[in-house]
Amino acid sequence: MRPTIARSVLRALPRPALQTSLPPRAVIATTTSSLSIDPTRQFSSSSFLSKKNKGPQPKSPQAKIRAHEDDEASETADSEGAGEVVIEEVVGKAKTKMEKAVHWARAVIFEGVERGRGRVTPALLDSVRVDVPDMPGSSHLNTVASVTSKGNTLFVEVYDTSYIKPVESAIHSANLPGISPQRMSESTLKIPIARPTVEQRAEILKSLHDTVEAAKQQIRTARTDGFRALGGRKANGTDDVQKVVDEMVKDLEGQLVAAKKEFEKA
Predict the structure, then answer these.
(1) Which residues contact 147 (CB under 8 A, 6 or more apart)?
(2) How many CA atoms lie within 13 A of 165 on its CB side?
């Protein structure tokens, strides 16, 4: 083929479209406008991740020590407050038990003094407790019978005839000097009370002394329970328990001394 013909064929073929490109300045301008970069913005060399909220920063060693001391102080205050509450409760329970013992002894001493003086009053039977089959526990005599006095005689009238035997047995079991019930009817007991002799007064006084010792033993038992609840004899609060013990024992001894003086007058 001739060169002339070849060039003619090449000119006849379709040429590919030329890819146009923007000049460098145009590219920079276009990119800048699309990103809308503020030329006044301050840039930082730190990374974007470092600016995220990572929570509270770790405390310095001094701050940690102060926080630990504050926690310990708070816990100590809480434990001390709880300890005071426990001590108060233990002392209160022990005092209640001791007061019951003192009240019981006071009632028995009063009855003994009345008997020693030769007075005949229903109070002479205040310490009697009756075991009734249809009632739980021991009942006070006044709950199952009425007690009246006339001259040197006490009369006990039960509310139900079925109580007569338990009441009679309870009065005998009380071991009250100079008191021996006699059955008058199915519902009434008679208790003649003679003026006590010197020997009977001595016996009554001895029984009162035994009563005080029994009450002291109950107080000591309550003290032991209180010490155990507090954690031992040297635990906090034991001084408060012992203070109550001393007060109760002093009260009992004072009652016994007063009873002896009354016996001397009779």
Answers:
(1) 122, 125, 141, 154, 155, 156
(2) 2
62 phi and psi angles, rounded to 5 deg: -65, -40
Among 180, 199, 200, residue whose Cα is nearest residue 190: 180
Q: What domains can you pick out in the chain, each with its CATH number?
A: 82-118+196-266 (1.10.132.20), 119-194 (3.30.1360.40)
What is the tens place of the pLDDT at every residue in 8-17?
544 555 555 4
Alpha-helical runs (H) found in the chain: 3-12, 24-35, 61-117, 141-144, 164-173, 198-230, 238-265
**Angle value at C-alpha 88, between 87 and 91, nearest 5 degrees:** 80
Q: What are the pLDDT digits (tens) for 151-174?
A: 889 999 999 999 999 999 999 888
In three-state secondary structure terms, 155 is: strand
Count Cα neighbours of 179 within 13 Å in the Cβ-side half-sphere.
32
Spatial CA neighbour of 168 closest among 194, 196, 190, 149: 190
DSSP state of 211: H
Nearest one of 254, 265, 252 to 118, comparing CA atoms: 265
pTM of the full structure: 0.55
